[in-house]
Each structure stands twice: as C-alpha cells, then as structure tokens.
Write a structure and sequence with these properties.
Strand order of the largest sheet: 1-2-8-5-3
Bound molecules: protoporphyrin IX containing FE
Distance between the termini: 40 Å
Largest sheet: 5 strands, mixed
Number of helices: 15
Amino acid sequence: MRDPYAWYERTSAEFGPTFSARALNGDLVITGDPVLVKDFFAATEDDVKQFGVDAAGPVLGERSVLLSHGDPHRRSRRLLMPAFSGERMRNYGERMRAIADELSDGWRDAGEFSVHEAMLDISLRIIVEVIFGAREDAQVARLVQLTTTVLEKIHPAMLFARKLQFGAFGLSPWDKFLRARAEYVEALQSLIDARRAEDSDGEDILSVLLRARDDEGHGMDDEDMIQQLVALLIAGHETTSIAMSWSVYWLCHTPAVDEQLANELSAHSEKGQDLSELHYLGLVTKETLRMWPIVPDVLRTLKRPFRLGSIELPAGMSMAASPAITHYDPELYPSPHEFRPERFETFQPRPWEYYPFGGGIRRCIGAPFATFEMAQVLGTVLRKYRFELADSSPVRPVRRNITLAPAGGVRARVIDR
Ligand code: HEM
C-alpha cells in the first residue's frame, strides 16, 4: 500500500518476475513476465471479475463500468467506448487547449506552486466541460465546486471497508459523503435533463452517451448514466493530472529532452494546431507513463480455474499484472531508470510489454482521451513556460486517495519561454 514501486523492485529482484503474495483482500499471484501478462490479458468475462471491490458499490456505483462484471460490464463498455474513440478526440482539442491556456495564466505570478494541484484544476475543468458538457460559466463553476467537494468526502478506506459506511446522526464521514453525493447527483441529473430536452447532436461526451445504443437498441437510463459519469470522473481525473505532473518533473530532470521538446513546440507554434500530432511530445508522454505507471498493478479475481503460463490457478484466487515490473525489464527497456523518450523511436512494445492502461476486457476506456489531453495540455503550457523545480532531490510516488501521486506534488515555478 505504502510504496508499491519499491516493493515490486525488491520482490522481483529476489524472486523473479512472477511470485505470490498475501494482500489485504486475499492471496494473489503477481506477474510482470510479458509471456504471462499476455495470458493474463486474454482472460474473458467468464474467467474473471474485479478484485477487492465488494465494498465500493455504494461509492462508485454497482452498475458502473468500474464495478459491473460479466454481461452488464460488456454492455457498459459497448455503450461507452465509441464516445472515446481516437477520431472523436479531435473535437475536443481546441477546448482543452483553451482551458490549459486560461488556467495556466496565473502561474507566472504564483511563485512556487504545486504542479499536481494545478494539473488537477485543469483536468477537472476538462472533465466538467468536455465530458459532462457544462457550458455557461456559472454552471461550470458550480460543477467544479460540487465535484471537488464530493471527491474530498470520499475517504479511500470507505472503498475497501463496509464497516466505515455507517451513519451517526448526520455527522459521520459516511453521512457527509452521502450528503455531498446527493447534491452532486442532483446537478448531474439537471445536466442530463437539459440534454434530453434539447435532443441535441452536441459533441460533448454526455450528449454522445445519451445517443448510444446497445445491441438491442436500448440506451442508458438516467441512473446508469449518472453512475457512468461518476466512474469516468473517478477513473480519469487524478490519473491524468498525475501523469502530466510527472512529465513536468522528468523534463526538469532531463534538460536535453526538455530542449528537444521546446524546439519541436516552437517549430509548430501555429494557433489551433492539434498538439497530439507532434511526434516528440507523443514520445515524452509515452515514456512518462512507462516510468511510474500510475496504476502499478492491474488485478482480477478468478471465477473459474485459469492457466497463467504453466501455473494452474484455482477459482477464487486473484492475479495481478504489474507494469511496475514489466516496464523496468532491462531486456525490453535498457537503462530502465533513465527517462529516454527516444527509446520508443525504435522499439514498438506489444500490449503485454507496455500497459500503463491495463489490457484485455478491462483496458482503460479513457486511454485515447488521456493521451490526447496530455498532449494538448502539456504542449500548451510548455510553449508558454519553462519549469524550474523548487527542490532538485528525487521525488517518489506516494499514496494519495486511491492513486499514487508524486510526493509533495512536484513544487516548481515557471519562467516565460
Ligand atoms: C493517464 C491517465 C490514465 C491512466 C494511467 C489510466 C489507467 C487505467 C488502468 C490501469 C485501468 C485498469 C485497466 C485494467 O484493469 O486492465 C483503467 C481503467 C479505466 N479507466 Fe483509465 N486511466 C487514465 C485515464 C482515464 C480517463 C481520462 C478516463 C475517462 C475519462 C478513464 C476511464 C477508465 C475507465 C472507465 C476504466 C474502467 C474500465 C473497465 O473496467 O472496463 N481513464 N485506467
């Protein structure tokens, strides 16, 4: 829980890339061996369900794509995935760049600030405007505020322990969470009502999802929609902002990479350019997600016996594939501790050799959105500013809510380019 990267490094050095471990929620077989990871990602809905989420339903939504399994999960993905296809992302570039530009204006006079907090603000505004489709300033501001409040009220332990989900005359953390959630759900419901009433062909993700139909021609009802929107928020907000903070961190620590990226950005400074087309920027984001994969292990629990390489696993057992091990395999990634975006010029990893977004039946739905957002936001702010770290000593990932974020948030100041 505390420092999975160090634990994975130590344990795989001692036992090799595949070993078993006792976790809080049960026994696990963990692997970072690409051959076994390939088998892991081949598991079907009949083979696996999620690991350790039994208590998370009342927080994340039983019907959401994060918590459902089997047919309901397949249906959720079928409805959600087209909205996140690579081609659709082009509709959002201009909005994402405008948000990054506006919110980064204050950084010049901010002195030393937390890059991670600043990136959280940007990624939240992007979710509220691009995914939820909020339009008027007052509506955007209210949703940003309600989202911040509800996220603050989710205590990570609530996701794992039903015992913490108790009321106490309106005063327990659970009561406070339920109140914030109710207000939040009401705000999402009004967005949905407004979109349904318009019958619009809007391009925001909510509008696209309202038009989505499953194989039987049915769409999502309001309760489904709300649970999916909350799931997208939880899965997409912190993750993307952490990734962007690490990019800034690595650029500060590797001046040659920073310079090459700055040259690319100044050679492509036309207004309105889709920054996801920039080659070197793409390599920088890819290497960022290799270095400290934000989710260090992806987990599944077996519904029936399953073979991982030559290992027979019984039903009920859980298994994990760990990019924190695979991404540091020196055979695949020479000098794995060095930030070297150009390694991907010549090396095209296969899906079981590089998997910051997991894989198989639960691969991250937001991967095209996240990589597109990283390019638009990083490109926009790095065109304007050079970052200088407040402290040049190494920063490690530490647990922050349900993800692992840079300790101290990457404190830096900016200087105009
Ligand atoms: C850099 C940013 C991100 C990273 C590193 C990341 C990583 C991941 C990982 C590792 C998983 C689990 C995959 C598995 O179990 O095989 C996942 C699942 C998911 N992610 Fe992301 N994610 C990111 C951004 C986003 C964004 C922006 C969204 C949506 C807006 C999103 C939506 C989801 C959803 C809905 C799932 C659940 C998929 C399922 O269970 O079927 N993610 N993500």
